[in-house]
Amino acid sequence: MSFETLGLAPALLRALAEQGYTDPTPIQAAAIPAALEGHDLLAGAQTGTGKTAAFALPLLHRLYVTQRTPSKPKTPRALVLTPTRELAAQVHESVRAYGKHLGVRATTIFGGVGMQPQVEALRRGVDVLIATPGRLIDHIQQRSVNLSHIEVLILDEADRMLDMGFLPSIRRILGHLPRQNRTTWLFSATFAPEIKALAGDFMREPVEIQVAKPNSIAATVTHRVHPVDADKKRDLLLHLLQNDARQTLVFGRTKHGADKLAKILEKAGLRAAAIHGNKSQNQRTRALADFKSGKVSVLVATDIAARGLDIDQLPMVINHDLPMVAEDYVHRIGRTGRAGAEGLAISLVSHEEEGLLRDIRRLLKQEIEIAPIAGFEPSRPLRADGTARPTQKPSGARPQRHARRPHASAGTEANPEARKKPRRRGGRGRQKTRPA
């Protein structure tokens, strides 16, 4: 199958050819025909499989072949909701690239930057509006946006938006959209019961598409664990990066820790930058651009970067800290091994993280190689199954209990616009955070 067989407008095929795309990915091959037929979609696929093009191409085709309402020449015709600023910016970039020969106008609104340029862009007129829920609510309150003529609503990374506490905002936004003559496409990595319930509330007999098992990872990714004592993690990370010059995305658990790691790596002579929720939008955009261009070889990130980062041929991801929720491992590792390319996922695991590693192995349903590094062997080795070797306890000692894991919605770092402060359930806090 090729894009030419899907029924897309010639101007879209021209733009795809200019970018070297000829054959659709499975999610694109399944979703585009259904979308062009006018169905509501409930579509799922693992990260890095081309979900953005799966909705952007049929959206642009529809806007191109149908006429705008003459009485409303400037109001948005399509709304794309995304959970993070970075994902919104990348969707915008894709829409512009695919629609370069169509004359379709698109703009992005998200927090962290001033509202006035966004207000002016909306006044000039826009066909496709890409937005994060919090900032869109701000514009609705100021009456600077009119959503009454939306023809297509797209929820991208719907599971992440629910994770980040955006459900009330989404329902509020839905109240400002037309109920009739609106098509809705929901894209999600997983179909949790909450996703199905949300879809049942505002979608009309959606076609359900699932091209990969939930929480699956590309088969081209090699997983490896280096056991190490917690206080030697930074030294081991530096050792690995100094002996491997490949472009690397490093995940830490906290914003302060990410900044500290980046400074340590820079001091050691590596070109490093940090990206997290305390950075301004300009800082985050610049750091990501420098990483993509190769000016920066190591990008240290919190889970804000786990979703939506589109980095071609990223060869390696390193977890300096394991995520507090196993599903976030999937989103982190989804940055590598994309579009059939090989990738390497390395995790530095201390004995305090044994429970987290077990959760990850259980989720993946596969073995992960345990490979100690000479000179960094931990004082408490891990077994091949990821559990710690038993150690003799003092007589009368009470067994220690693992700290309770925080709820999946415990982090809001990827959602600086969130109105509701999530509940924390103990343990250390966690930060939440197109086609190939």
UniProtKB/TrEMBL annotation:
The keyword Metal-binding does not apply. Residues 232-379 form the Helicase C-terminal domain. Signal peptide: none annotated. Gene3D superfamilies: P-loop containing nucleotide triphosphate hydrolases (3.40.50.300). Residues 1-29 form the DEAD-box RNA helicase Q domain. Residues 420-436 have a biased composition (Basic residues). CDD domains: DEADc (cd00268), SF2_C_DEAD (cd18787). PANTHER family: ATP-DEPENDENT RNA HELICASE RHLE (PTHR47959:SF13), ATP-DEPENDENT RNA HELICASE RHLE-RELATED (PTHR47959). Belongs to the DEAD box helicase family. This is DEAD/DEAH box helicase.
